[in-house]
Amino acid sequence: MYGLMSERPLLISSLLEHAARYHGNTEIISSDSDSNITRSNYKKVNTRAKKIAQALLKLGAQKSDTIATMAWSNVRHYELYFGVSGIGSICHTINPRLFPEQLIFIINDAKDKFLFIDIDFIPLIESLISKISIIKKIIVLCDKDQMPKSSIIKNLICYEELLDKENGKFEWPTFDERTASSLCYTSGTTGNPKGVLYGHRSTVIHAFAAAAPDAMNLSAKDVIMPIAPMFHANAWAIPYVTTMVGAKLVLPGRNLDGKSVQGLIESECVTFTAAVPTIWLMLFEYLEQSGKKLETLKSCVVGGSACPRFMMEKFYEKYGVEVLHCWGMTETSPIGTINRPLPKHKGQNFAERLDIAVKQGRPVYGVEIKIADENGITLPNNGKDFGNLWIRGPWICSGYLNIENSETHGEDDWFLTGDVATIDPDGFMQITDRTKDVIKSGGEWISSIEIENFAVGHSSVMEAGVIGVFHPKWDERPLLILVKNENSEVTKEEILEFLKDKIASWWMPDDVVFVDSLPHTATGKIQKLVLREQFKDYKLEVG
Ligand code: ADP
């Protein structure tokens, strides 16, 4: 209709163009594998991303071509996010921690035309190259004098040499905002990984939603460090959000141990960060050993796995850091829900606040969620009934790449998450389990997550995993598997006593076993599938 607002498309390149113009000198820094710091800024990155665009076009890249990266969280990887998507190609961020067969599958499934790779991953790609037919050129993210020699891969190209040939005088092209921009694969705990295709429109509106005050509350005054890697759900999309608001961006590279993370927070004055609970456990261990603090850090997102209560308490009471509990998936860009108090919670004491904060939070604008039973009948939001969690919204996937009629995509854009949850009358959602991890005891469900979260609150416990094991009467009963803190001693009886007033008596684990370590996924989550396999012959003592 005449006079309606302009239809200027929402393009990823416009995020960087804006940051370069209005926050040009704001820094983007990264730490390499030897903890050396590289410093750049939005202005420089915009020019270099344009050089990538020019080079890619010369190499023959076209709109909708898939161009892969295999790299840590670093400045060059960040440049590629924009250089590749900016010309309408699709930036496929490969998770190098996937199994070799999965890597071969996803590279072929995505039809990756070019691959940009950190030096660290050359041996990995050498071992796969004979099974990857599609990749035309491999570009190594390094300076000329660092170029590796490979007897297996011919004609490796040096990234800096490639960029040096270009002048960066380039206008970002304008195209339909519904164009695909980037591609991530789920980690595929069962079966092959599945490709999730993001678009320019979905990425930009997700960034608006994520930056908002009742979401991550980010502004140009922040210093933001995403710890979730850039090859996992695009570092939870935080690089895009940071660029939109023009904040300083700190990319932590390969080393995510407590010392490195604390070092970067302190030296770069980080105010906001985001990671899975495993990272925070390592950080706490280092802080306790070293006596160091997190003086500049104001808030941090905990997601990917449930955030235990003790973690929120420690962050706030010992280090003055506010925890934002978030839930999301690769399929949800990733923000689904985020936990922020409501006006009615004003005046609550910290313990009362925690009762709500341990939930995964409420949907941000744009997202709708519901829970339903096995027959798809919607269940009430009473905080008690739990069922399969469904989600829909403009940044939630509508299908998987190359998979027709995916079973997890229902009518009216609803996506079945594979999580089981409750939703309370205020809309706070709480994850009970992943559908496949739920423990069914005598027909009732027991939340493994809740037991784990209480167990890690014990001062001698480092990590906890709960699985269901066979029971002749109840079908399944919970088995608690624990890793102790270094130099800590604790018995099964002490653990059960500790849990006694925290969980319902019929949720009490039937047994507790201690192990040296738990198996983890590529993204640091406990691998329940492997754990169940390890304990498949476990026999409970049935009295
Ligand atoms: P994958 O683990 O398969 O790589 P994602 O990284 O996309 O996939 O993880 C999504 C899953 O992680 C969710 O479906 C949910 O089970 C779990 N998850 C994410 N955030 C939370 C949270 N805050 N609490 C509990 N579980 C979470």
Would you kindly provide a written description of the structure presented here, covering whatever features stand out?
It is a single chain. The protein is of the alpha/beta class and 543 residues long. Helix content is 29%, strand content 24%. Helix 7 crosses helix 9. The radius of gyration is 24 Å and the shape is globular. The chain binds adenosine-5'-diphosphate. Adenosine-5'-diphosphate is lined by residues 186-187, 189, 233, 303-306, 325-330, 360, 417-419, 431, 434, 521, 523, 525.
What are the main properties of this structure?
16 helices, alpha/beta, binds adenosine-5'-diphosphate, 3 domains, Rossmann fold, 9-stranded mixed sheet, globular, GMP Synthetase, Chain A, domain 3, 25 strands, 543 residues
Q: Give the CATH topology of the largest domain.
A: Rossmann fold
What class, by secondary structure content? Answer: alpha/beta
Spatial ordering of strands, largest sheet: 2-1-11-10-12-13-14-15-16
Ligand inventory: adenosine-5'-diphosphate
Biggest sheet statistics: 9 strands, mixed
Number of helices: 16
Q: Over all CA atoms, what is the radius of gyration? A: 24 Å
